[in-house]
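Q: Coiled-coil domain-containing protein 137, please. Structure only.
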Amino acid sequence: MAPSDPDNQQISNRLSRLIELKNQTKEGLFDKRRKKKKLETKNKTNDAILNKLDKFKAKPIKPIPKFVQKPNESDKQFKHRMEIMSTQYIKEVAFENKYNVDIKRNKSGEVEGVVKRKKDELELLVKQLKKQKKTNKKNKKNQTSESVEQPRLTKSQKWSLKQLEKKNKKLNNSDDVHDSRFRKETIAFGDVVHGPPSLTVPKKVMQKPEGAARPGRKDLLLKSIIASNKDQSATTTITKRNSTKIADNSSAINKKGKRKDLPNALRRQLDKQQQEIIEAYRNLKSKK
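A: Structure for Coiled-coil domain-containing protein 137:
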């Protein structure tokens, strides 16, 4: 709604709140409140940290040897002695930290004995936390295994499952799923078949007769005579064929050399064959 009098309009709540905050900041009231809250929170956190640190007090530092130059001692000797003492001190501290031991000495500096250190509370707490993390992880794994107990498959089982899935996909995608006999075969254009497919079936291997001999399998004298006759007939037929081949070769016309040297009848026959081949090739070209 448009105001009736534009000069006299009611101030909105947000604007009035902003004006109040502005006045408070000018007077210095708003910042003091915020500072008080911050100080209170800081003090609380500091107290909590100090309480925690009181439990885990730092280890007492090993007393560092004081280097004082002896009377009638040159600067070179003093420096050499300082170097020996410092290296000895560093090695001693490393030994103590390695074996968790404290070396006790006299006022004169001689070693009295070796005492084992007390277990550090901080280190124990860190170890406990690490153990808890490990146990939590193990518990989570056990829970998941209990909730989902699936038997582990071997490689062959996985492979067979994949093959089954592939087969099912193919069956779902095909048009005739119900019966494989009525599936359509897509034949490519120009694919020619001259006969039915030749199925190669492995021959049945006959087993040797066990026990009594079967009829027609006995080794008789008659069989050996028939076999010898067959061998003789085979040799005669081979000799006849060889003789006929030799005769044909002698009577055959030699087609080598130039065509003009050949007889007229043979030349006509060759020309006719050549013409037929050319015409067949032209017909194939025109069809394409």
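A: Brief note, in case it's useful. The two ends are 86 Å apart (CA to CA).
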